[in-house]
Amino acid sequence: MPRASLAAQLEAKYMFDYTSTVEEINKSGIKTAIIPLGSVEQHSSHLPIGTDCIIAEAVARSVGERMNAFVLPVIPIGTCYEHKCAGKFTAVWLRPVTLYHIIEDIVLSLKNQGFEQIALLLGHGGLFVVGPVVRELNANNDNLTVVHRELFSDAGKSGLTECADDVHAGEIETSVMLYLKEQYVKKDDMLKNDFLPDVPRSFLNYSSILKLSNTGVWGKPSLAGKDKGEKLLLYEVEQTVEFITRAFKAATKNAW
Ligand SMILES: [Zn+2]
Fold first, then answer.
1. Number of helical H runs and strand E runs in the chain
2. Does the predicted TM-score (pTM) go above 0.85?
3. Alpha-carbon span 239 to 225, nearest angstrom
4. Quick check: 232 and 119 in contact, CB under 8 A?
5. Kind of pairing, strands 117-122 and 145-150?
6. In total, how many domains does the chain have?
7. Which of 172, 165, 153 is nearest to 221 (CA)?
8. Are 164 and 218 in contact (CB under 8 A)?
9. Measured in angstroms, how far is the CA atom of residue 169 from the centroid of ligand 1?
10. pLDDT level of residue 6 (50, 70, 90 thresholds)
């Protein structure tokens, strides 16, 4: 597929977001909202700390345009204890219980004003409290469906990546950032920050990534490329639209 056509497919032409007026949103009759969730955390020396926010917001905007949804601004702080490292700044985190209540309050304020379908798009892999709050909201609220998706979690199946164990600041995130915000990617560092810890990802429940990886990376950013980033982003947008559409349909048909 030619480059211009991919880029055109990713560009959000029009959607409802915080630049809309309340009149526009009320008149639209829109009942679907999309909430991107990011994180402010170390992404080694080649990517900015706001990488998860930038990527989550970009996916959310493209998905929102395709689904005619109201896209909220990204929730920028997550629960990234796994980036803690004594003695230096590495991340900003909320306690899981705080994020639980932030999500609960935002979703219920939307429901209170007529929204019926909410999709939470997770730009950071460690937002483990989202599952429990989604279950709780669905179980206890009629006429409300909340779904969630960890972005790029199945990008390995896209056939676009080479590194099979890409967890953090690796091939995928670096490629997408090269496409979205190339000016923020430190290319010399990108080529020397590869690191693959010899433990499973679940060990991030027990330790900091900065103890498991010398560079703070889990993956191979040296394999990143701008074209790859564009294709990965389009793949993720399409996967997310399909997932959300299926999940909303299934939940509506099989209400609690
Ligand atoms: Zn990230």
1. 9, 6
2. yes
3. 21
4. no
5. parallel
6. 1
7. 172
8. no
9. 6
10. confident
Burial zone of 90 (CB within 10 Å; 0-12 exposed, 13-18 middle, 19+ buried) = buried
Whether residue 17 contacts residue 64, with contact meaning beta carbons closer than 8 Å, is answered with yes
Query: Region 192-214: what's the mean pLDDT?
Result: 94
pLDDT exceeds cutoff 80 at 45: yes
- Cα(209) to ligand 1 centroid in Å equals 12
Ligand 1 centre distance from Cα of residue 202 (Å): 16
Residue 35 and residue 59 in contact, taking contact as beta carbons nearer than 8 Å = no
Q: Could you give the angle at which helices 226-253 and 51-67 cross, rounded to 10 degrees?
A: 60
Q: Give distance in angstroms: CA of 11 to centre of ligand 1.
A: 22
Predicted confidence band at 228 (pLDDT cuts at 50, 70, 90)? very high
Contacts of 130 (CB under 8 A, 6+ apart): 37, 99, 103, 120, 122, 148
Label residue 4 by pLDDT band (50, 70, 90): low
- Note the Cα 185 to chain centre separation in Å: 18
**Element (DSSP H or E) covering residue 62:** helix 51-67
pLDDT given at position 98: 98
CATH code of residue 28: 3.40.50.10310
Q: How far is the CA of 220 from the centre of ligand 1 (A)?
A: 13
> Ligand 1 mean position to 207 CA, how many Å?
17
Q: How far apart are CA 224 and CA 123, in angstroms?
A: 18
Domain holding 180, by residue range, is: 3-7+14-253
Distance 47 CA to ligand 1 centre (A): 9
Determine the distance separating the centroid of ligand 1 and the alpha carbon of 50, expressed in angstroms.
8
The phi and psi torsions of 241 (rounded to 5 degrees) equal -60, -45
